[in-house]
Amino acid sequence: MFEQLISQLLLYAAMGAGAAITAVWVGITLWTWRDMRARSRDTLAQIAATAMVAILNVFGLIVYLMLRPRETLAEAYERSLEEEALLQNIEEKPVCPGCGRPANAQWQVCPHCYTRLKKPCINCNQLIDLNWNLCPYCATQQAKSAPEPRASGRSRRTSTSATANPRRVEESYEAAPQADVTTYAENEEG
Predict the structure, then answer these.
(1) Binning pLDDT at 50, 70 and 90, where does residue 157 land?
(2) CA-closest candidate to residue 116, choices 163, 156, 78
(3) How far apart are alpha carbons 120 and 153 in whole angstroms?
(4) Contact yes or no for 103/94 (Cβ under 8 A)
(5) Alpha-carbon gap, residue 175 to 164, rounded angstroms
(6) In degrees rounded to 5, what are phi and psi of residue 178?
(7) Is 0.85 topped by the overall pTM?
(8) Is 119 helix (H, G, I), strand (E, B) or coil?
(9) pLDDT tens for residues 111-151?
(10) Alpha helices, DSSP H only, in the chain?
């Protein structure tokens, strides 16, 4: 009777140990499959990693942990989004010095506060920065002019720029010499 009891206990213990080992084996195999799916889109790599762990058990898991891709697909996507955002921040975005609103690089005047952003070249009529004394397009020396006052704040009411006097912009256009378009076209052909 005592021997039967011991053999029954040993049988239950062996069945319990076998069930636990099988559960661990199935668990690490499934975990490997799910982890590899999160790290690679390659179906062959997913199957190979899962088969290696299923066949070699714990040793296969150790090998998989050493060889698996470092980051998941979601982490790689987030990293690429961060890099793209950093690159966009690095790019220079023109803003109006008068009101601080975004401005187009080809604008001569800010449409919101009428602050003059660029001036036309006296020879080729290309838009150049206000502080440039030499046109980079045609290498013509620009006439020196007194710097124009700029808006000191973001408020349109307290600004002393062209908001208070919109005619200043129109007068500056009339005062700036304009290039003869036909002469410029003839120079391009010749």
Answers:
(1) very low
(2) 163
(3) 26
(4) yes
(5) 20
(6) -100, 140
(7) no
(8) strand
(9) 989 888 899 998 898 988 888 888 998 988 887 755 554 54
(10) 2-39, 43-56, 58-67, 73-90, 167-175, 181-189
Residue 64 CA to residue 50 CA, distance in Å, equals 9
Only one residue has tokens 């062209």, namely 162
Domain spans, the chain = 2-70, 92-190
CA distances from 146 to 2, 130, 143, 153, 172 (A): 113, 10, 10, 21, 12
Distances (CA, A) of 61 to 79, 125, 126, 143, 161: 27, 71, 67, 76, 71
**CB-hemisphere CA count at 13 Å for 116?**
22
Look up tokens 């050493």; give the residue: 66
pLDDT tens digits along 15-50: 999 999 999 999 999 999 999 999 999 999 999 999
CB atoms under 10 Å from CB of 46, counted, come to 19
